[in-house]
Amino acid sequence: MEPYFWFTFRTYFYPFWAYLRFAFSKIIIKPISVENKPEVVIKGNSQNENIKFSEKNFLMANAQSNYVDIYYLKDDVLRKEMIRSTLSNIIKEIPTAEQVHRSYIVNPSQIEKISGNTRKGSIAIRHIKEEVPISPKYFLGVKEYLQSRP
User: Whole-prediction pTM value?
Assistant: First the structure.
């Protein structure tokens, strides 16, 4: 026999909590113009670890423990550089970047398409062959952004 507390929790409080989480966890991605923005300089935690590129040429960043892979274009050539930093530091340096997964941030203007569904979705980024996974939390926000962008 289940204790009365767990029965009450599962019956009344859990559905209410699930509803609140669904209703108030909506992510909205707003288009930001990056036409004449200056270059972004990302500093790593190690000495002399700097990456400099234009904000509109940023494609995506992928976090792996204490390191972050940054993908960007330089002279229309795809570059990938790894620095010792955190994803939250990269988000602070690139204001137009949007998080789509706990270990991925992307430039929303570089998204080509979204595929899959809320449970198992992915997005395609221009100039990058591999698909980027997207969390259920961010799926609807990215989908609405792609439908409403000019």
Answer: 0.77
